[in-house]
Amino acid sequence: MRPIVSEQNSLRYPLNELFGTQAHVRLLRVLANEVDGPLTASDAAARAGLTVPGAQKALRRLFQSGFVTRIGGGRNYQYSIRLSERLVQIALELFQAEKARYEELLDAITTTLENLTPHPQAVWIQAFPRKLGEPLALGVMHETRHLSKFIRKLRTQLIRVEQDFDLTIEVDGFTKADIPDLKVDKITSLYGALPLLDNYGRHINTRPSTHEESDHRLMKLSRKLAEVVEHDASLVRRAKEHVDRLLQKDQGLATMDITEWRDILNLYSIPRLSRFLTSTSERANRLRQSNPFFAVLNSDEKTRLMSGLEDNRDT
Question: What does the pLDDT average to over 273-298?
Answer without folding.
Answer: 85
